[in-house]
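Deliverable D5.2: sample structural annotation.
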Amino acid sequence: MDKVFENLIRFNMEVYVYDMVIKSTSTDNHPTNPEKVFNRIQTHSMHLNLEKSLLNVGGRKFLGFMIT
């Protein structure tokens, strides 16, 4: 996963053991960030588990942490 998403990790997304989180710092970048990740997934013939996918999940900061 680190090699597939090497230039996106920490900027547009975070990759964990069983999760990938696509993030945006502003609403202007929000439509393009998922597109970059999905294009990369398609390029490497990867598949997502739709049962575990959540799209358009909002969040807010609480005590300095992002809560979704």
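Annotation notes: The chain has one domain: 13-67. Residues 13-67 form one domain.
The annotation will be released with the project's public dataset once the embargo ends.
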